[in-house]
Amino acid sequence: MHPNKEEVRQKHQEACVDEEGAPGQTQTQKERLQRLEARAGSLRGIQRKNVRAAREQVRKAKALIELNLTRDVKGNKKTFYRYVSDKRKMRENVGFLCKETGDLVTWVMEKDEMLNNFFASVFTSKCSSHTAQATEGKGRDWENKELPTVGQDQVHDHLRNLKVHKSMGPDQMHPRVLKE
User: Fold this and answer.
1) How far apart are CA 140 and CA 179, in angstroms?
2) Span 76-90, mean pLDDT?
3) Nearest-angstrom CA–CA distance, 132 and 170
4) Cβ(127)–Cβ(133) below 8 Å
5) Residue 154 to residue 26: CA distance in whole angstroms
6) Helix, strand, coil proportions of the chain in percent (round to 5)?
7) Which of 62, 81, 105, 131 could cross-link 97 (Cys pair, CB 3.0–4.6 Å)?
8) What pLDDT, on the 0 to 100 scale, is given for residue 134?
9) How far apart are CA 162 and CA 177, in angstroms?
10) Nearest-5° Cα angle at 162, 134 to 156
11) CB-CB contact of 118 with 126 (8 Å)
């Protein structure tokens, strides 16, 4: 049994008993609710203090690690540069996505399915709303000719040479996402 369970049980039993402490006489619901709200407020204050103390300890530990790294940089450059390169990395999550219906997708699994379907549709004949569709027009001589064929090797070459630091194209897909 958890060491604080008995203590919590005692406090809850005390909350149900009136001021004199007679176990047979219970308080009204309003009085009981007021006491519980007061107790919850004090618990929130305690939790806030604990969180602040934990953050302070983490801050001090990080400062100590950085101090040790700077002190030992002449003898052990590898750990210093590993720490610096770790700090430079930016970890970004995938933001909200829009479905074809216009609804926002927020759940991770839905995002995974949506991106998977999008990338799978690129290599199949199925068209999605994100691909540009050519409108039919008159007087175009290329409509009667065969469409150019694109091989898998060509696609891999283009993806390999893709510049990931450029902005998004007309397909609204970031080059870094395409390259990965």
Assistant:
1) 34
2) 82
3) 9
4) yes
5) 80
6) 55, 5, 40
7) 105
8) 41
9) 11
10) 80
11) no
Confidence grade of residue 105 (pLDDT, cut at 50, 70, 90):
confident
How confident is the prediction for the chain on average, in pLDDT? 74
Tokens of 90: 């930016």
Give the integer Cα–Cα distance in Å for 14 and 23: 9
CA-based angle 121:125:129, to the nearest 5?
A: 55
Residue 138 pLDDT? 46
pTM above 0.70, yes or no: no
18, 35 in Cβ contact below 8 A? no
What pLDDT does residue 158 have?
Answer: 77
Paired tokens of 11: 């406090």
Q: Which two tokens stand for residue 84?
A: 């610096």
Whether 175 and 164 have beta carbons less than 8 Å apart is answered as yes
Residue 128 has pLDDT above 80, yes or no: no
Supply the pLDDT for residue 130: 47
